[in-house]
């Protein structure tokens, strides 16, 4: 039986035994795809506040703390179903640090590149996009999304194949920011770059393979910043077509930064120039 049919049936069920025992529910939830689960108190609060379809929240029995109280208030305010369960049942749902809260949500929705660019242009804002070229680590993806939300990025563009999934790790690491930043999936990064360039948006790749410093770049105009994968950086074929390339100055013996840290440096330099 399809998971979504089961989920809707359980959600609409009037039989209290189903929700009181949770055994049937958890049996199917443990078999569901992990990207349909989110864990962590703040991530769940952000999902609810963003209007996402949160179907059910499982709360650890005897869970306490100010943040947990905030979650309880948010759930009650938005009429979200929740149940108290032993920590062992939460551990069955995820092996990650769930902080005593796990929720089921509908899959993240993505926007098309055309819709994303058009909506930003029509808003009158100066576009700031982020392109992730083959970034594969879900936690790095989540950290980047969190920074992107904090710096007002208008949208994140990723390739359908070879990119990190939007799963529970991504949601939790982003502290729920994934629900506030539009994400676009494209077939090929290079096609997306050509489209952005044709729309009057400058493309800047972060790479060590250049002599140009980040502080030599004008980020005050409409721009899309391209970050590469954790191990290989930006693809050489992508570097050939971007408008500009820039690197961060390094003063230690380590040759590179974590991609999420480097991304933060590029985004905050953009904010500095625009403020």
UniProtKB/TrEMBL annotation:
**Keywords carried by this UniProt record:** Methyltransferase, Transferase
What GO terms describe the biological role, i.e. biological process, of this protein? Answer: methylation; RNA processing
Q: Which GO terms describe its cellular component?
A: cytosol
UniProt xrefs under InterPro entries: Alpha/beta_knot_MTases, Ribosomal_eL30-like_sf, rRNA_MeTrfase_TrmH, SpoU_MeTrfase, SpoU_subst-bd, tRNA_m1G_MTases_N
Q: Does the keyword Nucleus apply?
A: no
Extract the GO molecular function terms from the UniProt entry: RNA binding; RNA methyltransferase activity
Q: Which CDD domains match?
A: SpoU-like_RlmB
Record-annotated RNA 2-O ribose methyltransferase substrate binding domain positions: 37-111
Keyword Transferase in the entry? The reply is yes
NCBIfam families in alphabetical order: rRNA_methyl_3
* UniProt name for this protein: 23S rRNA (Guanosine2251-2'-O)-methyltransferase
Tell me what organism the protein belongs to. Answer: Flavobacterium cauense R2A-7
């Amino acid at each position: 039986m399809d998971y979504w049919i089961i989920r809707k049936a359980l959600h609409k069920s009037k039989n209290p035994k189903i929700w009181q025992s949770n055994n049937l529910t958890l049996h199917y939830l443990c078999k569901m795809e992990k990207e349909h689960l989110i864990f962590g108190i703040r991530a769940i609060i952000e999902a609810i506040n963003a209007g996402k379809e949160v179907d059910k929240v499982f709360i650890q029995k005897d869970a306490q703390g100010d943040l947990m109280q905030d979650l309880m208030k948010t759930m009650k305010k938005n009429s979200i179903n929740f149940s108290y369960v032993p920590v062992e049942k939460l551990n069955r749902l995820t092996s990650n640090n769930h902080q005593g809260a796990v929720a089921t949500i509908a899959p993240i929705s993505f926007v098309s590149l055309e819709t994303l660019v058009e909506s930003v242009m029509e808003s009158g804002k100066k576009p700031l996009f982020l392109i992730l070229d083959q970034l594969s680590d879900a936690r790095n993806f989540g950290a980047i999304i969190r920074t992107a939300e904090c710096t007002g990025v208008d949208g994140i563009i990723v390739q359908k194949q070879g990119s990190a999934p939007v799963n529970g790790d991504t949601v939790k690491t982003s502290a729920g920011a994934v629900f506030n930043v539009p994400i676009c999936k494209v077939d090929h990064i290079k096609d997306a770059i050509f489209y952005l360039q044709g729309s009057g948006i400058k493309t800047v790749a972060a790479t060590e393979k250049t002599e140009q410093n980040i502080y030599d770049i004008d980020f005050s105009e409409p721009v899309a910043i391209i970050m590469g994968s954790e191990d290989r950086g930006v693809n050489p074929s992508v570097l050939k077509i971007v408008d500009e390339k820039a690197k961060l100055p390094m003063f230690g013996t380590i040759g590179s930064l974590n991609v999420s840290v480097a991304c933060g440096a590029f985004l905050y330099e953009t904010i500095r120039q625009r403020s």
